[in-house]
Amino acid sequence: MTEPALFLDFDGTLVEIAPTPDQVRVDPPLPAALARLRERLGGALAIVTGRSIGVIDGFLAPERFDVAGLHGVETRFRGEVGGGRREDHPALRARIDDLHAALDPLPAVLIEDKGASVAVHWRLASPADAERARGVVEAAAVALGEAYRLQLGKAVGEIVPASATKGAAIRGLSAHAPYAGRRAIFLGDDLTDERAFATVNADGGVSVRIGPAETIATRRLADPAAVRALLYAWADGAPIDPDALPPA
Description:
By secondary structure, the protein is an alpha/beta fold. It is 34% helix and 22% strand. It is built from 7 helices and 12 strands. The protein has an 8-stranded mixed β-sheet with strand order 5-4-3-2-1-10-11-12, sandwiched between helices. The longest helix is centred in the middle third of the chain and has 18 residues, at 127-144.
């Protein structure tokens, strides 16, 4: 059987979704378990997320993992970081003040400035304010043109460089050792992960949707608690057999 390479989303996959991005809580055993699993996989474990590398490092301290951050805008591979510089995105940066002007007056709408991307969260907003927030971020994405795209998720809209996708990030990592020649396993929970599922499926890997939503993934786990239970078992020596997971 081909050796696996493991690619893991963060929010909604490794940790439960929280009302605001900074309120997520990491299960204390998780960082060390991921490090053990990485060793078992010969290093072929990466976090593939909309978060920045620095934020992931803070949540998973003291461990440091390969990361494709900001949906692949920035990467850290074998300790070397590339991409994600805010100065490379002047057109996007020019829109940040406009977003604040339009959305700061709306209670519970949060703008998360990631430097090379920007996310607008409306999870805690009223229905009217949520609709307004979505309209504002959609208009900003259209105004930026083809160099950027809007990525919608669970009560969030994020403007990212058009070339940045989780699927492309997984393929990029898979071109290099220790990921090369292995079967990709990608776990994700959101609309933003469906494109990556398509890529992984096309490349003969295993896509795993977390939660009950409709999906093109081939396998499914119920929630982040089920994900952590699986990863802890794998880290401690259980057979790594993604084909044995429940079908989606």
